[in-house]
Amino acid sequence: YLDCDIIVQNDILELYEKDLENKIIGAVPQISDDKRNQALNINKNHKYFNSGIFLIDCEKWKEEKCLEKMQNLFIENQNNLKYPDQDLLNKYFELNYKELEIKFNLTNEYLDYDYKLTKEKKEEAIEGIKNNVIRHFEGDSKPWLFNFFKQNGFNKFWFYAKMTDFYDILATEFMINNIREIPSKNEIKKIKLLNIFVLFSVCKINPKKTVIKLFNIIPIITIKK
User: Fold this and answer.
1) What is the CB neighbour count within 10 angstroms for residue 33?
2) Is-above-0.85 flag for pTM?
3) What is the torsional sign of CA 20, 22, 25, 29?
4) What is d(CA 146, CA 139) in angstroms, rounded to the nearest whole number?
5) Sequence-ordered alpha helix ranges (H) in 9-153
6) 134-136/6-8 β-pairing
7) What percent of the chain stands above pLDDT 70?
8) Residue 81 vs residues 74, 77, 107, 108: alpha-carbon distances, Å
9) pLDDT given at position 23
10) Which of 42, 92, 132, 164 has the fewest Cβ atoms within 10 Å of its own Cβ atom?
C-alpha cells in the first residue's frame, strides 16, 4: 500500500520481495509517538508505525479476516482515533508486524536524524537518505505547496511532476502558496523551479499594484488593492 504523497526513487521490487517472517504486514516505525500508544492503550514497547507505506501478505490478511476484525475494532476505539487508518492499524497489529528499513518510508522527521535517535538508527537514517527507495512527504510539508528547496526529494518531485498531465495545476497552486508574502516596492521575489530557472516572479510596482510574471518576462496576473 502506498499513499499518494510519495515519490519512488529506486526499484520498488526490493520492498515487494521483503521477507515478512510470517507477519501479515511490514511497516516503518515513526521516531516517537508515545502519546498515540498511550491514547490507544497500546503496549509501550510497541513501535508506532507510519501507515503511508506498508507491505501486506494478502493471503494471510484474508485468512485472518483482518478487515472484518478492524471494523469491529474501529467501533470500539473510534473516539480515540486521531489518525483513523494509522491508529487503527497500529492498534490491530500491536507488537505484531515486521519492522522495515527507513529507506522504504523516508518521512520528514528522519531528515533531522539527530532527533531522538540511537546511534544505530542514525546510521539507518543516513542510509535511508542516501539510498532512498520511497520518499514520503507526510504532514503539511508538501513540495507542491511550499518552497522547501532544502527538503530532500523536492527537486525530484518536480522532475516527475513535469511528466504528468497535472503539472500546470500543481505549478499554479505552488505559485499561489508562495506569493503570500508580497515584496516591498520594486523588489522582485523569484520562485524558481528545481532551484535553477525562474518559474514566476512577483514585483510590487507601487503600493496598490503587484504584477506576477511567468519566467520573469510575461505578465500573467495583476493584483490591485
Assistant:
1) 21
2) no
3) negative
4) 12
5) 13-16, 34-39, 58-63, 66-77, 84-92, 119-130
6) antiparallel
7) 80
8) 8, 7, 21, 22
9) 98
10) 164
